[in-house]
Amino acid sequence: MNINFTKEEYLLLLDIIYMADWILHAHSIGERSETKDYSELFQKLMIHAKDMGCSELIEFYEPEQNYALTDDFEEGSAALDYLDEFEGESFWDELISRLAMRDALIALKVSSAHEVPSEELFSELSKAEEYWSKEFETFDLSRISLNKGHSSILH
Question: Any bridge partners for residue 60, and if so which?
Fold first, then answer.
């Protein structure tokens, strides 16, 4: 099977696969064997950069024996902006979710979500998520501080 792409479509495909690759590997140390197929597909796509008139965006990295995106790619691509937006939103969602769970468990006087009926947990979670959403929307992180009274727990 052959698929024909215009240069613009090829660049979009590079962006999409770059974002997927970043999500898979940004926080990894070393190679991830379970994502090898994805990495190989990205390599296969980058091999065609010269044919697509994009040779300035890809370079062959001899020590690793693979292709890599150049600084020119990263400077010209919207992918990093989308990844920054994704990370920012993920940060707030995760922070709100974790604080809401903590507060819901405290309000319910339990140490695990499995100890209470899901309806009760959901009700407390909803209240706590609404509280934290409004807090961060209004004050960002300016009113958040560490309660050092419990620092002995960490030692």
Answer: 67
